[in-house]
Specification:
- With 435 residues, the chain is mainly alpha-helical.
- The protein has three domains: 2-87, Fumarase C, Chain B, domain 1 (Orthogonal Bundle), CATH 1.10.275; 101-178 and 214-343, Fumarase/aspartase (Central domain) (Fumarase C, Chain A, domain 2, Up-down Bundle), CATH 1.20.200; 351-411, Ribonucleotide Reductase Protein R1, domain 1 (Orthogonal Bundle), CATH 1.10.40.30.
- 63% of the residues lie in helices and 5% in strands.
- It has 18 helices and six strands.
- It has a two-stranded antiparallel ribbon. A two-stranded parallel ribbon has the order 3-4. Strands 5-6 form a two-stranded antiparallel ribbon.
- A hairpin with a 2-residue loop joins strand 1 (135-140) and strand 2.
- Helix 2 packs across helix 8 (192-202) and helix 10 packs antiparallel against helix 11.
- The two termini are 24 Å apart.
- The relative contact order is 0.11.
Length: 435
């Protein structure tokens, strides 16, 4: 199912053809600027534009000899252009095209992820509003706490997804910088106009200051945004896995016709997509650690970051693209069991209304400590199986000294716990889903 989404686009972004195309565009734009500055003959630029071409396999062949990817690329261009190729890369260093080209790839990958996130957010918002009144058990420490609605759980996810979308937008802006300033960033053999022209033509901003490379705090911030999005997906998927336990079965990821859950047990319907999402989130978080370690380079640069980035950036953006689309698949086909949610609310025999009783006693003038003691005494008796919670309270003379039977029974009205959640859904209705 995933191949109908965006993985082919992500593959194209990180492919060699696209990378070298971006390098070529940067080199030609630099030549354009140098023509305007009177440093390169216009006829040379015309010839470069007409003849500039590369062949990925030929570049790889040359690189086996040069052991330098940019030199191999330039040599292949020269084979096709001829003498005018000498005007390419004038005053530039390899990182000028490597880092500026990488910025373009990261920006394009961001656009794919932003589209994914927006689609997921729209689905979450829609489903949250659909289930705004689907009452279920709220749990803390894995233990029944107080009632919530399934829509509220999804609303929490929707707002978190909006924050992740905003973080991706901010990270896109942070990496949207180019650098054409030479060997150590001093413009020693380049006019700063070249950098401005290249960056503006590509929709990038010129780095305010650079060494031989763009500073890697930018890339680390980008990876942090990916890792946060992945961690949120893991959180959502973990909750669905928990709700799909046999003892709960309140919600279930889609199980398609013809699908098998186990080679040994035909009855199995396992949350395999959610489990896969959880596993892949760990990979992206690990890659994020690498990005943080890439921030510290020797002096004006070394290349310890380069080899790692060639793995972590394509892998992490592609993985997150995949995870977002798989979770969209889960949410789009999620099976919800409201009847089971309702049944599970009754498992504790009304113990979940203990706070309502506590507050009702406090409202009658009882100290909080004394009210807590009265309610807890009856709650623990119910847990031990001595007497149902409500029955115990109604028979407790100390409690009845403050609360009438009607007042006790009113505390067990589930609607009273949910009277104010409409405020949350009003905020959700106004939540923007577009990037």
């Amino acid at each position: 199912m995933i191949d109908r989404y965006t993985l082919p686009a992500m593959k194209g972004i990180w492919g060699e053809e696209n990378k070298l195309s971006k390098w070529l565009k940067i080199e030609v734009l630099a030549c354009e600027a140098m023509v305007e500055l009177g440093q390169v003959p216009r006829e040379a630029l015309d010839e470069i534009r007409e003849k500039a071409a590369f062949d990925v396999e030929r570049v790889k062949e040359i690189e086996r000899r040069t052991r330098h990817d940019v030199v191999a690329f330039l040599e292949n261009l020269a084979e096709n252009i001829g003498p005018s190729a000498r005007f390419l890369h004038m005053g530039m260093t390899s990182s000028d095209i490597l880092d500026t080209g990488l910025a373009l790839q990261m920006r394009d990958a961001s656009d794919v992820l932003l589209d994914d996130s927006a689609r997921m957010l729209g689905l979450l918002k829609e489903m949250a509003l659909t289930h705004r009144g689907t009452v279920m058990m709220g749990r803390t420490h894995g233990v029944h706490a107080e009632p919530i609605t399934f829509g509220l759980k999804l609303a929490v996810w929707a707002f978190e997804t909006r924050r992740n979308l905003d973080r991706l937008l901010a990270a896109r802006a942070t990496v949207g910088y180019g650098k054409i300033s030479g060997a150590v960033g001093t413009y020693g053999s380049l006019d700063p106009y070249v950098e401005r022209h290249v960056c503006e033509s590509l929709g990038l901003k010129p780095a305010e200051a650079a060494t031989q490379v763009l500073q890697r705090d930018r890339h680390a911030e980008y990876m942090c945004a990916l890792a946060l999005s992945a961690s949120s997906l893991e959180k959502f998927a973990t909750e669905i896995r928990a709700l799909q336990k046999t003892e709960f079965m309140e919600a279930e990821e889609p199980f398609r016709e013809g699908q098998t859950g186990s080679s040994a047990m035909p009855h199995k319907r396992n949350p395999i997509i959610c489990e896969r999402i959880c596993g892949l989130a760990r990979v992206i978080r690990g890659n994020n650690q690498v990005a943080l370690e890439n921030v510290a380079l020797w002096h004006e640069r070394d290349i310890s970051h380069s080899s790692a980035e060639r793995v972590i950036l394509p892998d992490s953006t592609t993985l997150l693209d995949y995870m977002l689309n798989k979770f969209i698949e889960v949410i789009d086909g999620l099976v919800v069991y409201p009847e089971k949610m309702e049944r599970d609310i009754g498992l504790t025999g009304g113990l979940i209304f203990s706070e309502k009783l506590l507050l009702a006693l406090v409202a009658k003038g009882v100290t909080r400590q004394e009210a807590y003691r009265m309610v807890q005494r009856n709650a623990m008796a119910s847990v031990r199986g001595e007497k149902p919670f409500a029955e115990g309270l109604l028979a407790d003379e100390e409690v009845r000294g403050y609360l009438s039977a009607a007042e006790v029974e009113a505390c067990f009205d589930i609607r009273a716990s949910l009277t104010r959640i409409d405020d949350i859904f009003e905020r959700l209705e106004g939540l923007k889903t577009e990037p």
